[in-house]
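[audit] Reproducing an earlier prediction to check determinism. Same input, same settings, fresh worker. If the tokens differ from the archived copy the diff job will pick it up downstream; this log only records the rerun itself.
[audit] input (292 residues):
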Amino acid sequence: MAVPPRILHLLAAVAVAAVLFALMRQGGDHDLQTKLWNSMQDKLHGVGSAGAASNYTPTAEDKYAPPHVDDRPTFYEVATAQGTDKVPGNHKNKHQYQWMYDKVLPAFRDKNPKMLEIGLGCDMTYGPGKSYHTWLAYFPQVQLYFLEFDGKCVEKWTADMQDATVIAGDQADPAFLERMLAEHGRDFDVIVDDGGHTMKQQITSFTVLWPAVRPGGVYFIEDLETSWSPMYGGRPGMTDDSADTAMGFTFRLIDEINGQVGHPRGELSASLRSVECMEGICAFYKKRAGEA
């Protein structure tokens, strides 16, 4: 009887982890421990042939590289090695989301985060899977979910993504999103919206999924430049809080959390601690449990 790949991965991880634990108890060489850790991640997630996280080391001249917070590869290094367009690399769009992710995500790295990304990458010229390998390499113990609109793409690629739950459905359909949460649970530590980027999709997804973010969690919306693109339902020119765009929606949330003392909060902003934005992306931070 064939052994499922997931079981083989886990057995390999246990073996390497045992060696690593023994070395750490004996005060073994720190560089060797780091190499073994990287090797364990490669075996767990099958990223060796696709470009392991440790395969990219930025030079001193690399102006896109955020500083390290510990000895492990940064999000920038992992994402560059895996080839996702979330970082500059060789992609034309030159997204620089590493400045956001390398600031926010280390707080979740040593936990067992539950994460959802909207968008599998089916419409990318290089095909799906780059974010899949990036998140598995960056988060050692992630519970990873993907939501993708293209059902045929999901059917084709699910077998190659056995370390994640891949769901086919419409992020602009509130009823579907509620069914998804009922089936797969709530309490997400991290949600990333890198889906279809239309105004309806971005606003609907946030409205339905924000309550499913765990206290202390974070929700990211990428590619917010589409708020100015008619192709995506955006509005050219300057956007204010009256605009029916994702950024107009964001401005309204910011207005609500910065209102005077006693100012009534909306249902969504009542649990919103802060919003942080940079070019193309915003992070929405949820209050911790008990936080006023």
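[audit] rerun output stored. Observation attached for the diff report: Residues 23 and 33 are 7 Å apart (CA to CA).
[audit] end
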